[in-house]
Amino acid sequence: MFGKVKDRTSMAEVLRGTRAGRIQSVGYMQVIPLISNLTDDRFVSPTEGQARVSTTGYGTLDFDNPSEAVLIVPCHAGYVVKQAAQDHAMSHAGLVAGGKRRAFNTAVCIQQNQGGLIRHGNYRMLILPFPLREPALKLRKKREYNRLWHAIGAFNRTLGVPAWGHLEYFLNRFRKELDQFVAEFECVPKQLGAIILVDGRVVGIERAPNHDYWRSVWPCLIRECYGSLAIQVARSRGETSPPPSTRVPLAETTDSLDELADAVADAAAEEERRAETIVRELLMEPFATEVDDHVAGLTLETLSHARFAGQVVRDGERVVYASILAKRRRLLEQEWERAAAFSI
Fold first, then answer.
1. CA 51 to CA 123: how far, in whole Å?
2. How confident is the model over 96-135, as pLDDT tens digits?
């Protein structure tokens, strides 16, 4: 299944065919929508009640795709269920051809002290919290179902949650805050993806094959994945911390509604300029690629880079799906905050 290849890709290829929408800013998080007229209806949404999920053993997630379209199981899709069964998540993305059923025995358990298997059915999907995604991707080739428990416990500890391998401890403690992220960031027309910034740094680049797919996975990404990082940053910074460098305060002196409207427009334009400045340097940097899977003419590749890690799905030379994350240790460094202007 796994094999090295010599060719490389770049962020420009991942973003090709898209344009940047108007930036959305709430607290420490900002989102640049990726807009496109391109769409590919060969792919089914992973959350629209089509695919049926189960666990057929500890560490094995099974996907039944009854549709004629290809199912791209999002990178690090997870399932927290109410039944007496151990919650599971993927350690990578997955490809399931139309009308097929496929089991992935490289999944991870995310509920340490709970036994039982998930019954075949439709369940709400989540995407693993940001701090767990890089460790999961590094371990994607292994088959020990308990291999993410230590990382979950360490993540929980940073937020004052019992330090066990139980993801539901975090989800239950911060349910209200996570729900707010879904309400605050909207999915816009023709959106296929997003560039996500937290605390003024690019932390993720996500792309889907069509708008329906994007609309279905966006709440999972903004809630559990990037919302978890925003919560971590907010708690570590404290209430008196200044806003990120990409946020712009309104002018303090406005004497009329017209002046206020101009101030809002100026602040929004400056926020976009600052965000674009950070993103621009990413476009031409190359990623080394490793082929992980081939299904229905599609290729799943894992990308490696000094600053980023992630996966893409290609149809020939064209990227139809991407989920790329900033490496945790590089988020602590300042060297890549400054760059030239951004365009796609």
1. 9
2. 999 999 999 999 999 998 999 999 999 999 999 999 999 9
Give a yes or no: residue 158 inside a domain.
Answer: yes
Q: Is residue 259 part of a domain?
A: no
> 314-338, pLDDT tens digit by residue?
999 899 999 999 997 666 554 334 3
Q: Which two tokens stand for residue 65?
A: 């795709």
Query: Average pLDDT of the chain?
Result: 86
Range of the domain at 279: 3-252+264-332
- Residue 212 pLDDT > 50: yes
The pTM for the full model equals: 0.87
Residue 267's identity, in one-letter code, is: A
Q: What is the 3-state secondary structure (H, E, C) of the chain?
A: CCEEEEEEEEHHHHHCCCEECCCEEECCEEEEEEECCCCCCCEECCCCCCCEEEEEECCEEEEECCCCCEEEECCCEEECCCCCCCCEECCCCEEECCCCEEEECCCEECECCCCCCCCCECCCCEECCHHHHHHHHHCCCCCCCCCCHHHHHHHHHHCCCCCCCEHHHHHHHCHHHHHHHHHHCCCCCCEEEEEEEECCEEEEEEECCCHHHHHHHHHHHHHHHHHHHHHHHHHHHCCCCCCCCCCCCCCCCCCCHHHHHHHHHHHHHHHHHHHHHHHHCCCCCEEEEEEEEEECCEEEEEEECCCEEEEEEEECCEEEEEEEEECHHHHHCCCCCCCCCCCC
Predicted local distance difference test score (pLDDT) of residue 47: 85
On whether residue 19 sits in a domain, the answer given is yes
How many structural domains compose the chain? 1
